[in-house]
Amino acid sequence: MTRDLEKMTDLELIERVKLGDKSSFSCLVIRHQRGLLRLGLRFVKDLDQAEDIVQEAFIKAYEKLSTFEGRSSFKSWLYQIALNTARNRLREKRRETVDIEETHLSVAPIGETMLVHTAITDLLNKEVEKLPFRQRTALVLRVYEDLSFNEIAEIMQCPYDTAKANYRHALIKLKEIFEHREDLKTWTLETGGFFMELTPLMEAEG
Amino acid sequence: MRPQARTDIKTILKNADEVEVPMDPGYYHRLHDKIMMKIDDQVVEDKSIIVPMKRLKQQREQLKKY
User: Fold this and answer.
1) Do B34 and A55 count as a contact with CB atoms less than 8 A apart?
2) Top-level CATH class of A1-100?
3) What is the pLDDT of residues A136-161, one digit of tens each?
4) Is some CB atom of chain B closer than 8 A to the CB atom of A172?
5) Domain spanning A102-206 has what CATH number?
6) What is the DSSP letter of A57?
C-alpha cells in the first residue's frame, strides 16, 4: 500500500486526500519537506525558523487543499504558500529587530584566496538578503532551485516576463555592487572572473 | 595568468551558497511527524468546535420544548 502511494503523482495523492485519505498527505510531506526546508533556509537563515515555515506551509496547504485546482503543479503551489509565509516572517522579524551590526571576523590562519573567497561570499549573501523580496525570490528559485521562468512565474503568481525581469534586476544590482567595491573589483579582474562577464551571460540566458 | 577566463554568475552564487539542510534522515522523520501531528490536532480542534455547537443546538431545542 505504502509502495503504491510512493509511486503516485502529486495530483493522484491530492485526489485521495480530498476523499479523506490522510496517509496520502503524509506521502506529500515526505516528498516535499526537504526542498521546502531548503527554500525556507534561504530566506530566514535559521533552521528553527525555516522548520516553522515548512510546518506552517504544509498545514495551510492541507487546510486549503480543496481550493487547489491543479492549474499549477502542487510543488509550485506549495512553494507559493511557503514564500508568503517566509515573507510574513521577514516582515515580523524586521519589526522586532534592533539594529545590531553583525560582524563576522575570520581569524583562522587561512590563505589569502580563501579570505577573499570568504569576503566575497559574505558580501554576496548579505547583498542577496537586501534585495527586494520579489527579486530575491526570482534569483533564489532560478539559481539555487534551478527552476524555469515558467515555474518561477507560477510560484510568484506573475507573468513570465515579470519573473524574468525580477531575476535580471537582481543580477544587475549585484553586478553594480561588485563594480563599486574597488577591493573586490581588483581581485576579480586579476582572476578574470566574477561579474565581468555578467552582461553577455544574462543575454545568453534570456 | 588568469586561472579562469570566465566565471558563470550562477557558479559564483552557488559557490557562495551557505545553505545546508540537515542530512540526518531521522530529522526528516521527526519533521514529518510534527507536521502530521499538527494536522491531526487541527482536525480534532475543528471537530471540538463543531461538536459543542451541535450540543448547544440540541440543548436549545430541548429547552424550547419546556
Assistant:
1) yes
2) mainly alpha
3) 999 999 988 889 999 999 999 999 99
4) no
5) 1.10.10.10
6) H
